[in-house]
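Annex B.
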Amino acid sequence: AALLWGAILLACSCGPGPPRVGAAPLLAATYVLDDANGLGREFDGIGAVSGGGATSRLLVNYQEPYRSEILDYLFKPNFGASLHILKVEIGGDAQSTDGTEPSHMHYENDENYFRGYEWWLMKEAKKRNPKIKLIGLPWAFPGWIGKGENWPYDYPDITAYYIVSWILGAKQYHDLDIDYIGIWNERAFSSKYIKLLRYTLDKHGLEQVRIIASDRLWEPISFVMMIDSELHGVVDVIGAHYPGTKTVQNAILTGKKLWSSEDYSTFNNDIGAGCWARILNQNYVNGNMTATIAWNLVASYYEELPFGRCALMTAQEPWSGHYKVESPIWITAHTTQFTQPGWSYLQVDGHLEGGGSFVALTDGLGNLTIIIETMSHNHSKCIRPPLPNFNVIPQRATFYLKGSFYMVQTLQVWHSRLDFESGNSSLFQQLHPLQVWRGRFSLDLNVDEVYTLTTLKTGWKCGYPEPPPPQPFPSIYNDDFNIRNPPFSEAPNFADQTGVFEYFVNASDPGDHVFTLRQVVVQRPITWVSDADQTISVIGNFKWVNMTVTCDIYIEKPRDGGVFIAGRVDNGGIYVRDSKGVFFWVFADGTYRVTGDLAGKEILMKGLAGVRDNAWHTLTLNIQGNSASGLLNGYPLWENVTISKPGNGWAALGTRSFEFAQFDNFHIE
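Galactocerebrosidase: predicted structure tokens.
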């Protein structure tokens, strides 16, 4: 055995750690695992969300091999997180937390199933794990769906048609089968709409697509399902967000599957890992939830946007290739590498006497997986909801295996210990197998540990070589948007915060501006949060202080159209309306303005520029210390404008309203 382990260690540079010798435990208790009286609920899997919003934005720009390595850590079975479920945003052209994601139908007569990056991501996930379950959920909708109202249910047939089009497009253009569809993320549901959605799905041969409602709280959806039998008949899964491991009586009484359809949302250090370990078990132990889905999959958005690094891993530097496999990835593996959707939980209480929890699952074919967590209160706080106090102490747990598990003789052991003193956590290490004697074994558990005990021998922890070291965003950056067949609809590193900026082929311009970047949202969407009244896309390094931004601009909207370039932009995401910075605007009426805010209320300078619509002009914004100046077509237009704050921020470009406009030859120094 020693020789064999030596060979495995040599082959893989990862393998079992040394056997652990626990301290003298204070408390001993016994637990029985038995399937003789039937099993508990069916397990539906562990997953993560891409979107809500634009959380995977920077991932697509990574060079190979790093991009594929990141995807392997997320989706490849028995490798890293080995996720069972991928949930994506159905882009709605509106701000949905850290940016906007493009809709497949910007306008009523428009359909395009190649925008954004969620199609690509779903295909990459399926390529690695053909069995992964796919979920689509809208956060926002294009404005035409509401015919001017900020509400998607006035014309439910239009909304259902729009959502079903997305599902049909996924199949027709990408050969993707969507398994589950949601209603409207964390907003009101309409029973009439849900029933019509089911009818529309069935009419298009999509009977296999299941409906999740309502991606908010357990109520009122559970109560309404109890009194409306037709609604009860069409909702397959009740999905709640951030349930704090608890459910409600009405939800249980529906007899439906209960999911934590969005959870975690916590900074991905070891406390985030502790949060994730605790809820992965306790969502079932306390709340009967059979799937838990993390927001979000991978932190591939500028870290200074809201909820920076609230993801299972971090990949926010495509320009350097640097990424980090954070501890929540290995906490996920404790469950995902040793279970599959379709397995069943055992009927067992699951609370440990000394604090902490365990779950046990079986495939019904003799395999058994037990996951134990002993996370302490202060080391497992999630971002929400508040966590009531509890105590966890070292303990000895003795398990009795009965029923069909009585014959199990050996269990493989995988172990993680989150070390908050030294910071030297040990993550997902394979220990020596555990011998089961006459259906009985004991384990000494310390605080802040995770154990997986399993009959499966498929677990694996072997990574890729270290990625390149981190680097700041390049201090000189150009994009001329000259690309004939771009792999994605958006230019690299631009992070749209209101509106959508896409590559555009300008057929009417025979000159230097055939390939441009164009803002394409021309009607305020049905929003999820307070999008700005202007459109804006940010880029670069949030820590930048002094900068020169140059860009060719083309106003398409006559009379009251306008565009801007900006520097030191200090806000985005759900706070985009409050963005401050230095904004240099030109308008179709020939005027210009310099403002200290995106809303345009804080006017620092204004005057005549002579710019007109449907012509190309070059804007240059120079910010040095507390002074800014601007050039138009290479000639000074305004100078010595005093800037008090903000002291740093991104570069940006955008438009005065939801209007068409084009940008070209973007340059930052």
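The first strand starts at residue 27 and ends at 33. Residues 1-22 have pLDDT under 50 and may be disordered. Further annotation is deferred to the next reporting cycle.
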